[in-house]
Amino acid sequence: MKKLLKTLKYHAIKRASTIAVVVLLCIVLVPGILLCARAGSQGQVKKTSSGYQADSLRYISGVTLKISTGGKTMEASLLENPTTREFMKRLPMKLAMGDIHRREKYAGIDRALPANVQVVKRYAIGDVSYWLGGGIAIYYDQDGKEISAGLVHLAKIQKGVEAFNHEGR
Q1: What is the reported pTM?
Q2: How many domains does the chain have?
Q3: pLDDT per residue over 131-156, tens digit each?
Q4: Over 59-126, what HEC string results?
Q5: What span, in angstroms and rounded, lies between the C-alpha atoms of 31 and 112?
Q6: For residue 44, is it within any domain?
């Protein structure tokens, strides 16, 4: 158990242009993590004009996604869905993310994630999403435009997302 927790520890970023995404497991019984997702969940996912209703999302209990950029670190609550579960299996990972439309940081990933869940075209500030074109996006600003390829929301950053609002990578 100690060895597993050590491998999941946060590794410092060497360059501000790299965003490290690391999962911190805050669960006592790690082997049961994939089976106990519904135990601490809240609410139901409801479709709205923005794609989902933030106060009714179902989150994975006891698991936090830790995201770092430019020496700042923030935590995100992971959403309960098969796409998020597959994403978690690939962590930890480092992504060199570029800026798109002054609203999001984006990086492609090697292998597609399953998207057999509700796909939406809208996002909110703080969303960490899988873009169906094959990448991960972190939304730090809102321009009101839909994402035509579609998104599956993976996590929600509650505070500190403004750290992504800078030019370039």
Answers
A1: 0.68
A2: 1
A3: 999 999 999 999 999 999 999 999 99
A4: EEEEEEEEEEECCEEEEEEEECCHHHHHHHHCCCEEECCEEECCCEEEEECCCCCCCCCCCECCCCCC
A5: 25
A6: yes
